[in-house]
Amino acid sequence: MREIADLKENFITQEVYSVYADCMFEPTWEKFCRKADGFLRDPEVSVFGYRENGAPVGVIVVRKGGNTAEICGIAVNKADRGRGIGGRLIRYAAECLSPDVLTAETDDDAVEFYRKCGFRTEAFTETYDGGECRRYRCVLRKG
Asked: To the nearest whole number, what is the mean pLDDT of the chain?
């Protein structure tokens, strides 16, 4: 059975961590728990999961403020990528939250995914630990 469901009440689990860790920088269980706790305390944050036979295989975290929503993180199990799960999660979140603008920030590894989902992208440079890296602002407008 396949479904997309609200995972906010069941976000801090090892099953969800095993999926979501792929969109985190240097993930650890402790770091995930701190990040998840912040999401859970924020009433503007929604967490949706794509589940197959009850197990999460994709997760999206979105923060909505006014007419804009930001994807805080999205991940799909490596074995399940290329099946359209990430795109379904984005469409579901956009449908549920109805923002005029949906945004995300990403890197070289995921920019093509966002482009395939219809986002316009703009590259910029950011400094991490004294080194520069290319990042992308991704924007999807309603309509």
From this structure: 95
Count of H-run helices and E-run strands, the chain: 4, 7
SS3 of the chain: helix, strand, coil, percent, to 5: 35, 40, 25
The answer on pLDDT for 72 being more than 80 is yes
What's the CATH fold of domain 2-103?
Aminopeptidase (3.40.630)
Of 25, 26, 45, nearest in space to 37 by CA: 45
CA dihedral 120, 111, 63, 77 (to 10 degrees): 140
* pLDDT tens for each residue of 101-139: 999 999 999 999 999 999 999 999 988 778 888 999 999
Residue 31, classed as helix, strand or coil, is helix
Q: Are 89 and 58 in contact (CB under 8 A)?
A: yes
| Structural domain boundaries in the chain | 2-103
- CB-count exposure of residue 142 (10 Å: 0-12, 13-18, 19+): exposed
